[in-house]
Each structure stands twice: as C-alpha cells, then as structure tokens.
Amino acid sequence: MRVRELDVNEIPPIDLLLLADPSRKLIEEYVRRGTCYIAENNKELIGVYVLLPTRPETVELVNIAVSENTQGKGFGRQLLMDAIQKSKAEGYKTIEVGTGNSSIGQLALYQKCGFRITGVDRDFFIRHYENKIFENGIWCRDMIRMSQDLF
Ligand code: COA
Fold it and tell me: Model pTM greater than 0.85?
C-alpha cells in the first residue's frame, strides 16, 4: 500500500469519503480546507483520509475510509497509523478524531491505535444530519470525541 497526498488537480474520491460521512456538503467543505491523502495498492485506489488543522498544534482526522471490498484486511489500521505518523512529522502535538456512539468497530480501531476518549458531544448527529442513522442496531446520536498526544 502506498499513501500519497492528493494533487491539486485531482478530484477527491467522493464515493470513498461518503462511506465515512453521509454529508457531501460537510465533506466538500473539509476537503477544501484540509489535506486529502489517498492509498493505492497495485495502482488501485483503496483508501482515503483527510487531515484538518483545527487549533494551534492540533489536527483532526475528519475522514478515513477503506473501499468496501478491501475492508477487514488491515488497510484501515495501516492508514490510521500513517495519519498519526504524518501528523507527528508535520509538527502537530495532538491528533483528534470523532466517531458515532454506534460505530463499534471504529471505536475499537481508534483505541487499538492509541486514541483515548476525551468527551461526548451529545446529540451531535441529530443536530447535524437530516436523517436518523442506525448502525449495529444502535441509534447514532452522540459523537465520541477522541485524541492522542503526538510525543
Ligand atoms: N471489536 C473489536 N475490534 C474490532 C471490531 C469490533 N467490533 N471491529 C473492527 N475491529 C478491529 C479489527 O479487529 C482490527 O484490529 P486488529 O488490527 O487488531 O486486528 C481493526 O479494528 C481494524 O481492522 P482493519 O482491517 O485495519 O480495518 P479496515 O481496513 O476495515 O478499515 C475502516 C477500517 C473503519 C476505515 C473501514 O471499515 C471503513 O472504511 N469503514 C467505513 C467508513 C468509516 O466508518 N470510517 C470511519 C468513520 S469514523
């Protein structure tokens, strides 16, 4: 797997980004403000992530996705570790990520890669998304905020 920054003249992989975030509007906004990285395996696009600087010395992983037919093979973990390493190399002191209360697999993955829960943004998904989201039989209402120190 090779990870590279998306060139300015390249179109962001919206179908992949939509796997992690159902809001096309929010995606377009943070892709414009942040940096989009893509992962290729034998020249085939298999993953994406987006880093967005938020506060001084802090970056947020606002989107991470692996193509559906390549999920569960370890690429997500590799991609997440790459995002952590790049953030550290660029001098950020903290990396943050947020995920839904219903995203059991993602909550597991982030914690396995060193993230810890910092807070809960109650009703975030009710405030920001028009349609109700269900995952793993759980109503996705709250945003679980997580972070990791990069030193
Ligand atoms: N309980 C415990 N661990 C779990 C789990 C669960 N229910 N579900 C997943 N995991 C673990 C796996 O066991 C694995 O851990 P390991 O490396 O110790 O074996 C790890 O989480 C992830 O495995 P990996 O194969 O690297 O993940 P992936 O390639 O499928 O990528 C996502 C993970 C989340 C990026 C991918 O599933 C995806 O694109 N999902 C849709 C988009 C999305 O939800 N993005 C995140 C938005 S917050």
Answer: yes
